[in-house]
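DATA SHEET
Item: assembly model
Revision: 1
Owner: S.N.
Input lines:
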Amino acid sequence: MGLARSHAAVVDVEDEEHKATLATGSESTLRQRSTGPKHTSSADTTKDDAPKKVITSVFTQTEKYNSLLTLAGLTAVAIFSRFYKIYAPDEVVFDEVHFGKFASYYLRGSYFFDVHPPLAKMMLAAMGYFIGYDGHFLFDNIGDKYNDNNVPYIGLRALPAFLGAMTVPLVYMTMREAGFPILTCALAAFFVIFDNMLVTQTRLILLDSMLVFFMMCSIYSYVRFYKTRNNPFSLKWWSWMIATGVSIAMTTSVKMVGLFTVATIGVAVIWDLWELLDIRRRLTMQQFLNHFYARAIGLILIPVVVYLFWFYVHFAILTNSGPGDDFMSTEFQETLKGNTMADGIYVKYGDNITIRHKDTSVYLHSHKHNYPLRYDDGRISSAGQQVTGYSHEDPNNLWQIYSDSVDNTKIGKQVKDKDVIRLLHVATSSWLLAHDVASPTMTTNEEITTYSSEEDGSRFNETTFQIILESGGDKLRTMASNFKLLHQATKVAVWTHSQKLPDWAFDQQEVNGNKNIVQKSNLWLSDNIEGKNASEIDQESVKAVKSRSFILKFLELQGKMISHNAGLTESHPYQSAPIEWPFLAKGISFWTENDTRKQIYLIGNPLGMWVAIASLAVIIGVSGADLLSRRRGFYPLNQDVQKRFYYATGFFFIGWMFHYFPFFLMGRALFLHHYMPALVFSYMVLAAVHGFIFVEGVDGPISDPGPETRPRQVQRAIVPVIAYATGALLMVIHLGSFLFFAPLSYGTSAIDVAGLARRKFLPQWDFHFAK
Amino acid sequence: MRNGHSSAVDQTGVPVYRGTQAAAATRESSLEHYSSSTTTTTRDAATAHHSLDKNHHSKKANDSDNDDNDKDKDSSRLTKFKSRRSLPWYQSRELQIVSAITLLAFIVRLWAIGYPDSVVFDEVHFGGFASKYLRGAFFMDVHPPLAKMLIALTGWLFGLDSSFGFKEIGMDYIEPKVPYIPMRLMCGLMGVAVVPMAFYTVRNSGHSIHAATLAALLVLFENSLVTQSRLILLDSPLILFTAFTALAWVNFHNQRQNPFSDDWFIWLFLTGVGLGLSGSVKWVGLFIIATIGTSTIGQLWDLWGDLKITPRSWLNHFIARAVCLIVVPVAVYMLMFEIHFLILRNGGDGDGFMSAPFQMSLGHSLKDSPLSVAYGASVSIRHQGTKGGYLHSHPSVYETGSKQQQITLYPHKDANNDWIIQKKDGSIPEGLEYIKHGDVIRLMHIFTHKRLHSHDHKPPMTEDENHFEVSGYGYKDFPGDANDEWRVEIVESRDEESGKFLHTLDSKFKLVHNNMNCDLFSHKVKLPKWAFEQQEVTCMRSAVLAKTTWVIESNAHPSYPADARLVNYKKPGFLGKFLELNKVMWDTNAGLVESHPYDSRPSAWPLLKRGISFWGKDQKHIYLIGNPIIWSLSTVAIVLYVAIRGLLFIRDKRGYNDDFNGLREYYELSGGFFFMAWTYHYFPFYLMDRQLFLHHYLPALYFAILLFSVTFDLLCRFIPNRIRLIAVVLITAIAVYSFRTRAPLTYGFEWTRTECEASKVLKTWDYDCNQYPDTYAQYTVNAVANTTPIENTNNNDNNNAIIDAFERINDELVVSEGEGVVDDVADVAAAAPQEAEAAVAEDAQITDPAESKLHDADIDPTFDFEIPVDNDVDENAEVNEKSSA
């Protein structure tokens, strides 16, 4: 690809050579004709007598009107396809559960946590605000009736549907700007309109239509930006670059998947810069750096600011305590109105406290039973008193907190960070102790037991623990402080895990000493102090809502989003592997209604997607053959066709790759709808490949001429009848396939068993009511 | 992107037709730059020369190229940097140097190899596998068999008693007369052989003797390589074969001007063999395959662009490489498995991992059974979704739920696996009535007369609300109840007939409980002790199909006609077994995600952040840690390489022609290859989720050391030999000093606390210095103390009360702490964690099929997803609700 690109990048500025080409070109063109059977460029014949003047557009006025008409028609169809019976079903469908709920939370201002950035959800909330929805409904279950609950759901659905429809003209215009003939552009738009997955996913209160819309905005802006490259630093150049930057930021603010769009644009920009660096572009280092800084501002700085801005709005709206509190740190929660942190009270030496494990919510517990001397696997234990994790409230959960000094002078003083403490089990009057004996189930970890306070105290050193506060200030406070208990003598942290002990410990959870002391699961928190509660003790000190700097809040939330997203590894019946997506091996059941046997089943347009994947294969085949033959000195493609092939089609192909392959590296549960962005690219590639095969030559030049640009040849593509015929055929196939599956996509009409069986092209498609 | 010059060709827009100009265009650069990381400036520049190129800088490049070529038409520009060997080989200085270094390697690597005389670290696994080879007992391991078979072979030659199981770390070798020294020597000798290979690899890449010597010495004095090659582990064979492959490839590359000559073929073939051997030791060997593969593609790409080479000739190049680098390694790899299968003829603890037909080839046998199944037949039913075995019952009851008789999965053949199929009402019809799809049946356990039964009780282990207990219920002549009824639904069949009628082996079926509409289900969850840790069987609603499918494996009925069609498993051929075993290895390997106290992430390796504790006893400790000097030199070399290449890359683009008179290509050729090898041996680990250890970096380290020696050669390019020699000596001396400082950890020797503290370069190195005494003299004192026999608690715990034991242990612990004497009890306590380390240790060779539940990736899909976090996961919950609604 390198050869083609470097050529194309210089073609406009180094026109002298271009002319030289023309002068000597006739012979080579002839030869070309004999080696390359297709693409006997129509432009060749007109080359010599073409007007040598700066041209602004290659398209005639009629063509522009035609294009506009086509665009309008396609947009109308797109809007119809998205809005058709948008009121049905009047029930909560699939992930509307979440995104509808989040919109409600925004309207209420109560804090929630989600793995996706806030923009799309705020847009939904704004939509709700404008149509007078007050956020009273919580979208709790799939199938909840909207009308019964007085929810203006049609308005909420209208936003994604509208943006979904607007994706279509963007696709058309992007293709058009990239220099494809009307037929090719229309083909791409048509495929995007009549894809079942895009229709289903954009008709509901979901994020993906926003994602795809902003993604197409980014691509469109970038194409426009690239076309102004002959006039760097002009107003137009800046505008389109900043538009690109804002769009990629908006995309990423909808879902983190937007980073793939950033990567797509990023690679193109880096490539462009690399070409600018080339000495033959005759840029001085200073000029190059200017280019670099300009892009850094427009494509890095501005996007970051936009992205942060949405989080700022997010925090500004969500000021009340809500269901998301528990995900955040103590400091964060304290910034929310009505948070529970205010209930925490400071723990003093001598208090009886309960200690709860943060992850598994069990209490540190002990009871008058000992570890068996010999375990089933033959290892022996200390046979000391059991220390376990117990999930219910119980007097045996109480521990009295002592300092490490024998004379207990500290009693009544507050427990501080890094204090060394001892814990006395109140019910059995024995000290918590860890020692170098293997724990019951994990031989790598230390046994935790207790040691009666009536003994001689010779094991004092083994009963001291350092308390390390991870959050919630530097004094131990109930509810607020997360802490680790680090055993002083052997440096293990008191830890528990969901593994149950056998019968001898009444199926309670194992507690042991973890050698990996940095693990997050070592955290405990003190639940309450026996006999005391905040209202009695700290009545006067009702905590005010604290403030925290935006950047800290942002960093915390972003970190939590990423780690939670990565943690979504549990399997799901409708999840699928990325390899299955292009072939549409599996769908997702969105909604079913038993009485009417209606259902919404998310599945792409099978025939369309299979044609698309074949066109992707064509790209790989053609570029591979082109590379190999050029390596051997043969030039099978017309130069302009080749340039368009690599630059436009190749760019869309890279878009597809970047929106598809990274999913292979993700460990989390993945779903078919993650393929949506890539799907749009694959349809654009499909149309472009169709054009590559059937359309002769290309329209050009399409980029704006700059001050240094010399007169350029006008070239026109010839769209033969066969192109229209095959294009129409593809459209008919696609439309037929769409209509065939439309009942499943819209969920407005029931299909009988036989009908479902007919639609079950692949055995893995698990429709409901299919038998 | 390969280069800037070629674009100049196309810039003109004239497709250059090179055919007719071939004669002119064949000014031949007799050198071909194969390394994929090398820019192929020469040829492109040359073609540019004939094109209408107008750029002055390319022009200049052309001129200088042509000058070069005029001067020495026949010899490569590269070869002038190579040594000229004039002496006969046996007198060559190289040989003397190599011999000396190798001799040194013998001493350093094999010194006191008999110590410690007990099982260390993963010897547990690899020694254990050797025993199993001698017994012929099938086992499952995540690594291919070659190195383990070599270890077993050594053991066999030196009379290893196969009853010694290498069960745990610290087991004594002396008493049972285990030939552990020869076994360790085998690995140790392989470690020794790496040293001369490093020398020749660098030397044959065209670098100076000094650089080659330095490479060999640094490989020699690398603590981690020494530690790793002194024990019965797989890494020293792996590194040896990897190094060998690299050497063979370098030699092959040196033959590039004589394609298809004998030497060319020999080295190409040996490269292929090396690839096969590396891959047969550990799958990490795939990285060297990727390295060579990329290099090969680079070569073929260059040859393709060389218009002097006809397509025909190119095809020959291609085929030769395909055969030697694809067919040969695959053949070697498969041969190893063939031998593996030939040796392991009997069943063993690995059976549970394999499918039923596979097990049939392991000494288990199954009688042919009649095809059709009729009411009244006694059958055994095997679960398909897991390798758990047969539907089983025995006269023990559940201790939870209904307290009725247990129903389990049991992996072995047993009379308790036999069930009689009855009609819905419990009767058995006269004559033969064959069972159809959709029939409702009852299953009666022959020995206990209980019927397979399910009801609304919670199952013993699984807490999910979709699961119900399955039990054996009734007694002899009990009429039965409706909860005994199961519907046979054939879900997968071999042919149409077996889709309609229940056929032995051919019909895979579900058993659907008629009343509750749940499917008979099993998963890799073990029942508690009271059910002998057999696998749990439940009845589950809306389960995934795979774990609810069953198949009739044996089938007998008194009145079957004598000529009934019989069926049996089709015994898998070698290929079937090979593929299945590899798949199981892959799945098991991917499942090794448990954390381990000494695991580490790849980002920590080049900085040597921490090591691995191998063994500790008697105040001595073996701890795998690298030589920080060598380690940092190698890492610096990597960084330097990236920096220099990056800088030159950008300068190229700006039109500077940094050729350095051919020097650049020369270093990029060898350095580039080593760098690529390092990259391929390092970065793929970032993609692995499984537990990783420092020793996974060792092959990459080897290449990084070679890269350092190349860098050294470059730096010393213009220095007189004498000073270069001094530099070699200096670097080596520092490395040796650093090696000596950490030698006690490497060999497990005596040490003092202060020396130990002093050796810690980074505070993240987590070996405990407190275990060492203050002076060496202390060791003798302790040795005397240790000879005093102390009663072992292990032997007499049966009679004493719990309290006694507790107190006694307690006391002894206190004593041991107080006096610094390590007594037996403390050992027991201390050894326990170590055992565990071994058990989960490094590559965690799983021998216990039960362990495989760790690797069971298929979790039931009916999880309650309560986390209100993610949309996608929550979709789950909703979907589930729907499906159960």
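QC remark: Chain A has 22 helices and 14 strands.
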